[in-house]
Specification:
Among the domains are: 55-192, Leucine Dehydrogenase, chain A, domain 1 (Rossmann fold); 211-364, NAD(P)-binding Rossmann-like Domain (Rossmann fold, 3-Layer(aba) Sandwich), CATH 3.40.50. Helix content is 44%, strand content 17%. It contains 16 helices and 12 strands. It has helices at residues 5-8, 25-39, 44-50, 99-115, 136-150, 169-181, 185-188, 211-227, 243-253, 277-285, 302-307, 345-353, 361-364, 367-381, 387-412, 416-435; strands at 55-64, 70-81, 87-94, 122-128, 159-163, 235-239, 258-264, 267-275, 298-300, 312-315, 334-336, 357-359. The strands form 2 sheets. Strands 9-8-7-6-10-11-12 form a 7-stranded mixed beta sheet, sandwiched between helices. It has a 5-stranded mixed beta sheet with strand order 1-2-4-3-5. Helix 4 packs across helix 16 (416-435), helix 8 crosses helix 14 and helix 8 packs across helix 15 (387-412). The longest helix is centred in the last third of the chain and has 26 residues, at 387-412. Bound molecules: glutamic acid. Glutamic acid binds at residues 88-90, 162, 164, 196, 340, 365, 368-369, 372.
Length: 439
């Protein structure tokens, strides 16, 4: 039996729209970084350090399939920077995973942690595969063999993986178990924080599952306050109905906002009278976690989704969705980036020209890593926090970061993405200047 997406995660990929996959995602990071570094006149030496990753690990490893065949897999872990604390970031299982993408995602993690002021560096990893092609047992073996191949390149005080596209709490539990199995019995109890996003029983935190979506909604609330905009009755569209997209959609409903179009890997659907996100999740759970065929909405194509007039658009799928080709289509007031890197620099420019506000990814979707930090702390202290405590602490951290980015954008009279970079670079520059470079 093939693993159903419910067993792995609700994927959110988009294939038909012209994406700029051929253009390097890492080029986007470089262009964004250069713009902010020029603007703040970042120290030349620190610029050289931050412009490169620290470690790039590529492992090839064999796994026995259910039919007895051996298949070879390629896994990646890129560690960008650990000046602020252990390397931190997710692992994704997706056919598009390759070194350039992982480099970009690792670098974004460094900025993300620096902006929200948590003591982590940036890393990212993954395996190039289509998880829907494997059984659950095969996925378990692939995960365990990858963890074993990474060996000491991960560790609770060194580099801490977490869920990302197509990786779930279950996958984190397999990573934890494999990692602990290689430890001496004396060490084992002290290492549960080698990975975050675990199932609650295995040391996960309440609120981690919804954390990224919750953070997206907290930043939208702040944007609405700034703009004097009433979220009650506001319309929103969502690209991607995986963990981030579905949680964002459900939490927006609590504000009385109306989901009018949504897309996942199986297609897009729309209803101008509103789609109930909870009903859609319920439908998807019985439909291999896909939204196509949802009876209370009309099927639309992906271009129509991006052209749908709404107040808020939440891209929560993959990189390079809002580009020179697609940005002209958007008719929204704000883009809240639930995904990492959904807008390329050309897309950014076009949205600015159109007067569309932007809550950039490294601020907007930082809720996931913030609650990962809380999980890590709970594990280290053998504590278990109530959901209210997690939500309240997440709110405080992300609202403070939002304020820092907003104030920086005003001070430098610049766009919010560049402002978010400036907050991160300023933080890192101060740390490097205080500590100096060894030797
Ligand atoms: N994969 C998530 C992200 O891109 C979370 C990473 C983490 O919790 O370490 O932010």
């Amino acid at each position: 039996m093939k693993a159903s997406p419910a067993d792995i995660d609700r994927t959110a990929a988009v294939e038909e729209i012209p994406t700029r996959k051929s253009e390097s995602v890492y080029d986007n990071v470089t262009r964004q970084f250069d713009k902010a570094a020029d603007m703040v006149k970042l120290d030349e030496n620190i610029r050289k350090i931050l412009a490169m990753t620290t470690n790039e690990i590529i492992v090839h490893f064999p796994v026995r399939m259910d039919d007895g065949r051996i298949e070879m897999f390629t896994g990646y872990r890129v560690q960008h920077n650990n000046a602020l604390g252990p390397f931190k970031g997710g692992l994704r299982f997706h056919p598009a995973v390759e070194i350039d993408e992982v480099r970009a995602l690792a670098t974004w993690m460094t900025w993300k942690s620096a902006i929200v002021n948590i003591p982590f560096g940036g890393a990212k990893g993954g395996i190039q595969l289509d998880p829907s092609k494997y059984t659950l047992k095969e996925l378990e073996h692939i995960t365990r063999r990858f963890t074993f191949a990474l060996g000491d390149n991960i560790g609770p005080e060194y580099d801490i993986p977490a869920p990302d596209v197509n990786t779930t709490a279950q996958i984190m539990a397999w990573i934890l178990d494999t990692y602990l199995s290689t430890m001496s019995p004396h060490e084992r109890q002290r290492c549960t924080h080698v990975v975050t996003g675990k199932p609650i029983e295995s040391g996960g935190s309440l609120g981690r599952d919804k954390a990224t979506g919750q953070g997206v909604v907290f930043t939208i609330e702040e944007w609405a306050k700034d703009r004097g905009f009433d979220l009650r009755g506001a319309t929103y569209t969502v690209q991607g109905f995986g963990n981030v997209g579905s949680w964002t959609a459900r939490l927006m409903k609590e504000h009385g906002s109306k989901l009018i179009a949504v897309e996942d890997v199986s297609g897009a659907v729309a209803n101008p009278d509103g789609i109930d996100p909870d009903e859609l999740v319920d439908y998807a759970s019985k439909n291999k976690w896909l939204i196509s065929g949802y009876p209370k909405a009309e099927p639309i194509d992906r271009k129509t989704l991006l052209q749908t007039e709404a107040d808020i658009f939440v891209p929560a799928a993959l990189e390079n969705q809002i580009t020179a080709d697609t940005a002209p289509w958007l008719k929204v007031k704000v883009v809240a980036e639930g995904a990492n890197g959904p807008t390329d620099p050309d897309g950014d420019r076009i949205l600015r020209e159109k007067g569309i506000d932007m809550i950039p990814d490294i601020l907007c979707n930082a809720g996931g890593v913030i609650v990962s930090y809380f999980e890590w702390l709970q594990n280290k202290r053998s504590e278990f926090w109530e959901l209210e405590e997690v939500d309240c602490k997440l709110h405080k951290k992300i609202v403070a970061a939002y304020g820092r980015v907003r104030d920086t954008a005003k001070k430098y009279k610049t766009d919010w993405r560049t402002a978010a970079y400036i907050v991160a670079l300023d933080h890192l520059e101060r740390v490097y200047k205080e500590r100096g470079i060894f030797p």
